[in-house]
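[scheduler] slot 2 assigned
[scheduler] job type: sequence-to-structure, two independent chains
[scheduler] chain ordering preserved from manifest
[runner] begin chain α
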Amino acid sequence: MEADPQALVIGVVGPCCAGKSTLVQALLTRGYQARHIAQEHSFAPRMWQVIARPDVLVFLDVSFGVAQQRRWMNWRPVDLEEQQRRLAHARQHCDLYVATDPLGPEAVCERVLNFLAERARHASSRGV
């Protein structure tokens, strides 16, 4: 049987304004071990694996327009494109991808919690 989902290390990656800090705080409040991984600022594609060593990797995504609505930043669409390039490896290897544009913070957290619960049920049914 898999360990308690709250014992897992959950890494959270994504571009600026996707909701990473908000999700990490919500998970920490609920007793999960969550880590915000600032992969979008790194030129090392596998940084998320080395620094955080997550058991579960969550990728939060956001469009340029919604990012600007959430928090004005002095950047251009090309800056988001560069962050997405830096995040490509993490996105390819994430366990859960969430496009956050249409979602509020609670809905994002609920999706992650549902994913973790389903993952635990699946592992339990396999006898892991």
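[runner] end chain α
[runner] begin chain β
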Amino acid sequence: MTMTGKERAALRGEANRLTATVHVGHAGANDSAVRSLDDVLRTHELVKAQLSKQAGVKPNELARQLAVSTRSEVVQVIGRTATFYRPNPELKRKDGTPPWRR
């Protein structure tokens, strides 16, 4: 499930309006963080996560670990905020808008 540059750019634009709904603590990509991110991805598809400062783990690496664990894609990492995407066809609204739009 590799995204094209255009798809990634479109999702980055959509993510500008989002706030971080998942906070990954100092324990990193542990079971609790993975479950939390997985639950939010299941209901929103596009999710921002705030990554805490960790000794020895860079935000890009932590985001990659979380993406692998949740079978999602990293859309972008800016500072300590990462955006993830995992499609869920069951979430489409009747008007066709994605679930993260209000």
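[runner] end chain β
[qc] chain β: Strands lie at 20-24, 46-51, 73-78, 81-85.
[scheduler] slot 2 released
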